[in-house]
Amino acid sequence: MDRLIAKAKADMENVVEAVRKDLATFRTGTASPALVEGIKVEYYGTMLPLNQVATIQVLETRLIGITPWDKSALTAIEKAIMTSDLGLMPSNDGNIIRLEIPSLTEERRQELSKQLSQRIEEGRVQIRNLRRRANEAIDKMEKAEGLSEDEVRAGKKEVQDITDENVEDLDVIGEEKTQEIMEV
Predict the structure, then answer these.
(1) Do residues 62 and 30 lie in contact, with contact meaning Cβ atoms separated by under 8 Å?
(2) Residue range 150-167: average pLDDT?
(3) Are 61 and 33 in contact (CB under 8 A)?
(4) Alpha-carbon distances of 107 from 104, 111, 129, rounded to whole Å
(5) Domain boundaries, the chain
(6) 125, HSE (Cβ side, Cα atoms, 13 Å)
(7) Those residues with Cβ within 8 angstroms of residue 42's Cβ, 6 or more apart along the chain or in another chain
(8) What are phi and psi for residue 172, nearest 5 degrees?
(9) DSSP category for residue 151
């Protein structure tokens, strides 16, 4: 049972981490390398994430600098940014690409907040599904291995505690990101 609970805990923590990484790509009006590092760039016939062909750094609170390791990749990077769904216009000076992050409109903030809530809820659903699977596995173990009611109850309580902890983590992540989005 310990292995089963440890696996459920690891899977739930993976869900929380995946949601955290997903929310890092949300454009909040402040510069963040996570905003662009996953953009796919065509580099010598291969599609690579931007962070594998360039250095990404925050130059100012609303300015990202992208310095390609190979100057011939400048136009490919520029094209990838323009075709991405970020809606940002890169400026290129021949050495570095600058991305200015405009402040968000109130309407866009509300829209992002709704998307954020949706992603957090999807994470909660995944965690609850993992809890259900763990509880079903405990029930099967009860029948197959003859676990006592106390052992089953203790196992399910531990799974519920882990579930509550991870859902709470998601809520904290969501609240922090919502504050970041709503900040003017």
Answers:
(1) yes
(2) 94
(3) no
(4) 8, 6, 33
(5) 2-24+105-182, 33-100
(6) 6
(7) 76, 79, 80
(8) -65, -45
(9) H
In CATH terms, is domain 2-24+105-182 a member of 3.40.50.150? no
pTM of the model: 0.70
Please provide the DSSP assignment of 53-79 as one string. Answer: TEEEEEEETTEEEEEESSGGGHHHHHH
How large a percentage of the chain has pLDDT more than 70? Answer: 98
The answer for residues whose C-beta is within 8 angstroms of residue 38's C-beta and 6 or more apart is 25, 49, 50, 51
Q: For domain 33-100, say whether CATH 3.10.450.50 is its number.
A: no
Q: For residue 148, what is the DSSP state?
A: -
- What is the per-residue pLDDT across 8-17, written as a single tens digit (0 to 9) for each? 999 999 999 9
Distance between CA atoms of 74 and 82, rounded to whole angstroms?
Answer: 12
pLDDT for 184: 61
21-76: pLDDT as tens digits: 888 877 676 778 888 888 899 988 889 999 899 999 998 888 999 999 988 889 89
Kindly calculate the radius of gyration of the chain based on its CA atoms and give it in whole angstroms: 22
